[in-house]
Design brief:
Blueprint: H1 5-12, H2 16-24, H3 31-44, H4 50-58, E1 62-66, H5 76-89, E2 95-97, H6 106-115, E3 121-124, H7 132-139, E4 144-147, E5 158-161, H8 163-177, E6 181-187, H9 195-211, E7 214-220, H10 224-228, E8 231-232, E9 235-236, E10 242-245, H11 248-260, E11 270-274, E12 288-291, H12 294-309, E13 317-320, E14 323-325
Parallel strand pairs: 1-2, 1-3, 3-4, 4-5, 5-13, 6-7, 6-10, 10-11, 11-12
Antiparallel strand pairs: 8-9, 12-14
Helix pairs in contact: 1-2, 1-3, 2-3, 5-12, 6-7, 8-9
Keywords: DNA-binding, Transcription, Transcription regulation
Organism: Actinomyces bowdenii
Domain HTH lacI-type: 3-57
C-alpha cells in the first residue's frame, strides 16, 4: 500500500500541512524541517498526489463549492454564498463550480475529484461535526475552507455566523418593542446535522438569560402542521407574544394558522427569523430577520481560500455579524 502524507508527517515529526509546504514550496520552512521531511519521503517511498503537484506548478484555476450529498435542492439563498465566492475569485481568473457528487461514497467521490484535478480548491457548505469531507480534502493537500465549523481543533479555516450576536440582535429588537416572553421555534436536528442549528439554539438560550427575558423553546421537525399547533384564537401558546424562528416550514404553518384564527402579524403577534426563514417571492413569508450578509460571507470564504492556498497565515475562524432586516413583521405586544 502506498505511503500517505500523514505517515510521512508522523515519521518526520511534523504536521501533514508542513509536509505539503515542503513538497510544494507554498510556504517557507526551516532547513532542518525540510531535511526531516525529505528523509521521511525517501524512506517511505511517498509519492505526492498529482493534484498537489499540479496546483504548485500552475496555480489555482477552479474552486468547487461543495454542498452535502443529502441535499435535495439548492435554493436562491444558497446561491448568495456562491455569488459571493464568484465575486472574490472570478475577477482573478478563477472559475467557481458546483461539482455534482452522484453517490453516497464521500471518500471515493472526493478522491476522484482531487485526482482528476477538476478543482484546485474547495469551499465546504452544510458543515457538520467532524465533517469527513474536511479531513479527506486536507489529507489530499487540497486547499479548503468551510462556511460553518466542524469543531475539529486545527481544522480547515472557517467562516461562520456569530450565532450569539444573531440571537441577541433579534431579542434586543423585540425587547425594545416591549416583548418579554417569546416562543423560540427552532428546527429539530440530529447530532451530526449542520452545526448552525445547534449554535442557533445555544445562542438563543444565552441571549434570553442575558436580557432577563423568558422563553419557551420548541425544537420541532420541518412541519407546517406543527407550526400551526403553536397558535390558537387567543394567540401564541403559553402566553408568548413573539416568535423567534429558524424553522422555515413550521413558521409558515404558524403564519397560516394565525390568519385562519382571524389574527394578524404583527398586530396580534410578532415574528422574527434567525438566519433565513423566508421563501423568496412569497409576500406572506417575508418576515423580519436577523441574518448575515450571505454574499459577503461567500466573498470572505473566497478571499480566505486564496490566502490559504498561497501558504499565508490566516485566521482559523472568522465570525460574521448579523444585521436586522425589518420587513414589518414585528410590533409592540397587543
Amino acid at each position: 500500500m502506498a505511503a500517505t502524507r500523514a505517515e510521512v508527517a508522523r515519521l518526520a515529526g511534523v504536521s501533514p500541512s508542513t509536509v505539503t509546504y515542503v513538497l510544494t514550496g507554498q510556504r517557507s520552512t526551516t532547513a532542518a524541517t525540510r531535511e526531516r521531511v525529505l528523509r521521511a519521503v525517501e524512506e517511505l517511498g511517498y509519492l505526492p498526489n498529482t493534484a498537489a503537484r499540479s496546483l504548485a506548478s500552475r496555480g489555482m484555476r477552479s474552486v468547487g463549492v461543495l454542498f452535502r450529498r443529502q441535499r435535495t435542492t439548492i435554493d436562491a439563498n444558497d446561491l448568495d454564498y456562491v455569488d459571493g465566492a464568484r465575486a472574490a475569485l472570478e475577477s482573478r481568473g478563477i472559475q467557481v463550480v458546483l461539482p455534482v457528487l452522484s453517490s453516497g461514497a464521500a471518500a471515493t467521490e472526493l478522491d476522484t475529484m482531487v485526482r482528476s484535478q477538476s478543482v484546485d480548491g474547495a469551499i465546504l457548505m452544510d458543515v457538520v461535526r467532524r465533517d469527513l469531507r474536511e479531513r479527506l480534502l486536507r489529507e489530499a493537500g487540497l486547499p479548503t475552507v468551510m462556511i460553518g465549523t466542524s469543531g475539529v481543533a486545527g481544522g480547515a479555516p472557517s467562516i461562520d455566523a456569530d450565532f450569539d450576536q444573531m440571537a441577541l440582535c433579534a431579542l434586543e429588537h423585540l425587547r425594545a418593542l416591549g416583548h418579554r416572553r417569546i416562543l423560540g421555534l427552532m428546527r429539530r436536528v440530529g447530532g451530526r446535522d449542520a452545526n448552525a442549528y445547534h449554535a442557533a439554539i445555544r445562542g438563543l438560550r444565552r441571549s434570553v438569560c442575558r436580557l432577563g427575558m423568558e422563553a419557551v423553546i420548541r425544537s420541532e421537525p420541518d412541519s407546517a402542521l406543527v407550526g400551526a399547533d403553536l397558535v390558537g384564537r387567543g394567540g401564541l401558546v403559553e402566553d408568548c407574544t413573539a416568535v423567534v424562528a429558524n424553522n422555515p416550514v413550521a413558521v409558515i404553518g404558524l403564519a397560516c394558522a394565525t390568519r385562519a384564527y382571524g389574527l394578524r402579524i404583527p398586530q396580534d403577534l410578532s415574528v422574527i427569523a434567525l438566519g433565513v426563514t423566508e421563501y423568496r417571492g412569497r409576500p406572506d413569508a417575508a418576515f423580519s430577520e436577523c441574518s448575515v450578509d450571505r454574499e459577503a460571507m461567500g466573498r470572505t470564504a473566497g478571499e480566505l481560500l486564496l490566502h490559504h492556498a498561497r501558504g499565508e497565515t490566516v485566521a482559523r475562524r472568522v465570525l460574521i455579524p448579523s444585521r436586522l432586516i425589518d420587513r414589518g413583521s414585528t410590533a409592540p405586544p397587543a
